[in-house]
Amino acid sequence: MALLLGVDTGGTYTDAVIIRDERxxxxxxxxxxxxxxxxxxxxxxxxxxxxxxxxxxxxxxxxSLSTTLATNALVEGQGGRVALIYIGFKxxxxxxxxxxxxxxxxxxxxxxxGHNHAGGEATPLDEESLRAFLAQYGMAVGGFAVAAxxxxxxxxxxxxxxEIVAQMTGRPVSAxxxxxxxxxxxxxxxxxxxxxxxxxxxxxxxxxxxxxxRELGVEAPLMxxxxxGALISSAQARERPIETILSGPAASIVGARxxxxxxxxxxxxxxxxxxxxxxxxxxRPTIDPAxxxxxxxxxxxxxxxxxxxxxxxDSEVHFLSEGLxxxxxxGPRRLLPVSLVAVDAPEVVHNALDAQLRATLPGEFDGRxxxxxxxxxxxxxxxxxxxxxxxxxxxLHPLGNVLQSRIDTSAITRLVERGLVQISGATPSDASHVxxxxxxxxxxxxxxxxxxxxxxxxxxxxxxxxxPEVMARxxxxxxxxxxxxxxxxxxxxxxxTGFGVDPEALARHVLMQRGLGGHRGxxxxxxxxxxxxxxxxxxxxxxxxxxxxxLGCEMILPEHGGVANAIGAVVGRVTxxxxxxxxxxxxxxxxxxxxxxxxxFGDTETALARLEGVLRLRAIAAAKAAGAADIQVxxxxxxxxxxxxxxxxxxxxxxxxxxxxxxxxxx
Length: 667
Fold this sequence. Notes:
With about 675 residues, the chain is α/β, with parallel strands linked by helices. Among the domains are: about 80-200, Rossmann fold; about 315-475, no CATH class; about 575-660, no CATH class. The protein has 23 helices and 29 strands. The strands form seven sheets. It has a six-stranded mixed sheet, sandwiched between helices. Strands 11, 12, 13, 16, 23 and 24 form a six-stranded mixed sheet that branches. Strands 27-26-25-29-28 form a five-stranded antiparallel sheet, with helices on one face. Helix 18 (about 470-495) crosses helix 21. The longest helix is centred in the first third of the chain and has 32 residues, at about 185-215. The chain is globular, with a radius of gyration of 26 Å.
């Protein structure tokens, strides 16, 4: 009998489950996610599930972790300060391909060097400029990203730059060729930047999680869920944290299949920060061929074809003043619910809310609070940001008491993006507490916060809402509506026939929206979803029945759906893929592009066999390092040729080797 422990760290809750022999859930438990130190929440959930099950920690044979940390960090624009070393490209690429946006003002260097498409050196690497850049910025950032032109054909310049960075700074380096074997340098550079930004966060999470599991007596190896639902070792996740984006959502798809046995359905997982929607087809999640997209960023990471929306139980509520009636919209930023911070600091919260309610006119920052995230690495702060951090200190404060000028508002936004401070305000979770749909936190504080929010004046001069209950219903209805839009967008994006129109525009089209309401006039309109939806997440049972009614589809809410991510974290397989390319720089010459540099052969089959052999060894070694047993290997060859003067001429070949197996369990 093998006892498996699955853990998922979400934006609000950390879930833990124990499964026996991959067949039945013995126990499940939740603990609040502790953003300043996620391992505290991990420890709380694991303690609770061990206590509930009566199982000794030493009997756990395998532990596995899925996390929304990387996904949430990218959606919310958080992460460490990094520098990009961009070799062989043009300065204008930074703007055209969104790299400047991703850098958010962090330093970068466009450096001479790089290779051509055949793997030959295009320009020598400018090591002198690199050393000068590192002397200036080496200690001011937490990590580096390196991307060189055609590095997947010859990584020599990336490897040399990595070596110099390590010698001069000792900081971690993310090289683009190690993250993807595909062409498209700017996209690889984006992937490397995001990976570098996440390294510190994921390293701290995994390290602390391993420590706390050992303290509890769990000696089993720790696995981590990758963005395609496969399992990797904790060491591999630390090196390539970008591969854990969509880890939590991918685990939820695996968990949804395990819980329901469904072959064809949309899976929608609502968390505190995001709603993640994907298609389950033939019992398997579809993989995004263009690479994982999270928030505004398109990466080259293989991951589940998932649409991630900044919409969850803790989404920020925004006031819409347009029109006579006004309204609200939600997300994408996550706030700490007022009802939650009132549990930690009831006197501060209630005193501030009561004072704001007594005021004649509503204030700009009514119902909002701020606190520092403890234990974060602080680097490269501007003087105003440093002053704000000192002003906040270690306590919770009403936001209006901390901000002394308009310029402070911009500074506090930058601190939030860096993950150094958290804002608290009205959220759908507060609305649920007001309506009696939830009772975990302080409902009285939620009622006061929504009363303050409802005092805002619409275009007609009236209050947005006359009382907290009306305000709460408005927020919940908006959450249900935006969830329905997210499901429709995914359905349109996955339609095999396609419509040739942006899925977002189709979901919001007036005909689609009128059809959801069953319009009857001179025209009869009926629209909705033709596939069932599997609703997952702690709050799915609260919001999703209404979503199913709105879309006219079957809504499946499985038992244990609130911990589906944790279930998916431990029932998946280890799968490692290695890919490589063979090109033909001239007739009769076949070039194999390897990490050690190009190798040339005189015939196609010898070149393909050489590449396949190298990839097979690497894939098996990676699977073993990830803890796989009973490894099975599959190979896909994609050979492209062209007809020239009546004969077929070799153009290029790509080989992908996949090594897969269930993780070894401890005796």
